Each structure stands twice: as C-alpha cells, then as structure tokens.
C-alpha cells in the first residue's frame, strides 16, 4: 500500500463525503504528480516520453492536470482524442491507438493532427492507398508475449485481437513499400499489471529486431502495464530496476541506429489508480445463516472491477476506524450479485457508516454505468489540500435526456 504521506486522511474523506454526498469518487492530484515523477526519475538516463493512457480516467480536470505536468496523452477512441484537445494537449503530444475501427475514424484522427498507431493490415493498406507517405504513422505489433495479471487484460498473446503479428512482417513490408507509407514508430503493449521486469526486456528485444525493416523510425513504444499494489504485500513493478535495465538496453541499441530514437511509454493505472478513493455509505447490515453482509449504496454499476476481473480493493470503515474488527462481506444494491469483497476484516460497521475503497482512480468511474437506472456518482478532485467538485451526481433528467418519448 502507499505510504501514509501519500494517502488522504480518513477524517478528510469523511468531510468530503458529508459535503458532497455518497457514493463519490475522490482523486488526489498530487499523488498523480508523485507517480509521474517516479517514472521520470526511473528513466532519466534514456530519451523517454510518457503518454497518459486516458482510458483509465478521462475527467477533463484530470486531463488538464496531467497536461500541466508535461505528460503526453494516449487515446483509444476519436472521442478521447477530442477530449485531449479540449483539455489543451498539443496534437503532437497525443497518440491515437484504436482497434477494430473503420478508416473514417483513422482519417478523423489524421485531420486533427495526432500521432496514429495502426494495428491491422486492412486499415494499414487502406490508409496507405489513400495517403501514401504524406502523413507518417506508427504500427502496433503483436509480439506474442503472454503477460498481465489477468487473461482479460493480456493483449500481446497469440489469441489477442490487438496488433499485427510479428510473423506477418513480410505482409507489412509489402504494404509499406507498395503504398510508400512512412513508418516513424513501432508500438507494442503486452498487458496490464506486469510484475516481471524481464517481460519488458523480452518485448524491447523483439522491437529492436523489428527496427531493421523500418529506416525512418523515431520512436519505440512499449505501452505500459506497470503494476501497483492493491493490498499489503502485493508485488509491484520495480520501476527503478525496470528503468535501469531498459534504459541500458535502449541506449546501447539506439547509439547504433541510423537516426535519433525515443523510448515511449503509456502509463494509465500507474498514474491514477492510487490517487483514487471511492466512498460509499452502509445502507444495511444483513445477517444470514452464512454471512454478515454490509449492503452499500453502490454496486458494480459504479465499480465493476471486483466482479469483472476478480480485482481486490482494500475496504475500510472511515466512520469507525477504531471499532472492533469483524468479518463482513461487502455487497452492492444492484439486482444481481455484485460482491465487492468476501470475508473482509473491517472495523465494526454500523448502518450509515462510510466505507472507502482504495486504489479506485483507474477504471472506476470510467467503467461505470446506469444499470438498474441507478445514477452515476459525483467526482471530487483534491488539489492543494482543497476539494473541488469536478462532476455533478447524475439526476433523473440525465437518464432521460437522450430518450425520445413517442406521442
């Protein structure tokens, strides 16, 4: 878990919950800065750029803050590109890496002037036939490396939909040559929550081998997948060790390449996961023959990771932090099984108490929905010690605003 100095105090979280209501997502801006500075320090010996993978959290205020740190932006939809531009990112600092989109979305990104990664042969050929070498592109490769904390978030293996197989290089070369495409970047991403530093080293060695096919490269992009701790004793990616080993390998290779090269990364969860807190209220304490349930005023419509990925989030009672520890199963109010945590030791929970889920900044609000016609929660950003409302809680009118009632 993060050091205590990196964690917002429980009484402060209670104050925010009292002021803005629950459920509420709370983001600690300075924690994002801390994480970004760790990456900069770890890779300071290599010519490195970082692009925030905003699919983790796209609130416009978070994007503006990350832009203010000097970080670039990694996007996966044309809407994320548009949000990035609205947040003030320079198009040259925005990467667009979609998958399974049509050519029109790629053209829309081109018209906005961003860096484009193409991850399939069909679009590569269509783009080349239409634009040739007039607009430089990058190519996303599939390195055939199995990595990540869960099969659902592993993206570089043989059965993945992402990227063009490295074994299709001859086909890539034919398209590039025949359409005169200018390829200035190679990209790969093997998955999320990678603990083993050697996975990145295997990946970069494959990328080094692929560079022989592309004389105009300016960057090698290794995606991300840096793991953060979700509970005490959880392994993390050793960023300092990774920075040293990768920087050494990259610098050794780059000095023999024909033109200057940059090493790129796209951290998402690493930057924003630990900055986030999700505070809910205990609605009921329900004892059955087998369990004591804490039923809260939220569900997987607000935080789907535990149900979708079997993800662990530390849960604490911030209203009664010194109460006697008891065993609870924490569940939501959705009309489906939506268990946040089985058999958790939590300080005694009373109806009306606030519970906090830690590490809720990444893929929390971003994957939320209005299932059961429940309202999406508010979002609050803490900056310079002050809380600011950055998204209002949904209202019934929000559920209806795009519906058209027939006469």
From TrEMBL:
The protein here is known as Diaminopimelate decarboxylase
Using the record's annotations, give every residue carrying the modification N6-(pyridoxal phosphate)lysine.
55
Can you state the subunit structure given in the record? Homodimer.
Q: What does this protein do?
A: Specifically catalyzes the decarboxylation of meso-diaminopimelate (meso-DAP) to L-lysine.
* Cofactor(s) essential for the protein: pyridoxal 5'-phosphate
Task: Name the gene that codes for it.
Answer: lysA
Query: Lineage of the native species?
Result: Bacteria, Pseudomonadati, Bacteroidota, Chitinophagia, Chitinophagales
- Indicate the enzyme's highest-level EC class: lyase
* The family this protein is said to belong to: Belongs to the Orn/Lys/Arg decarboxylase class-II family. LysA subfamily.
Entry GO MF terms? diaminopimelate decarboxylase activity; pyridoxal phosphate binding
Which part of the chain is the Orn/DAP/Arg decarboxylase 2 N-terminal domain? 30-273
CDD domains tied to this protein = PLPDE_III_DapDC
Specify the species: Chitinophaga eiseniae
Give the InterPro entries listed for this entry.
Answer: Ala_racemase/Decarboxylase_C, DAP_deCOOHase_LysA, De-COase2_N, De-COase2_pyr-phos_BS, Orn/DAP/Arg_de-COase, PLP-binding_barrel
Q: Which reaction does it catalyse?
A: meso-2,6-diaminopimelate + H(+) = L-lysine + CO2
Give, as in the UniProt entry, the pathway in which the protein acts.
Amino-acid biosynthesis; L-lysine biosynthesis via DAP pathway; L-lysine from DL-2,6-diaminopimelate: step 1/1
Reported EC number(s) for this entry are: 4.1.1.20
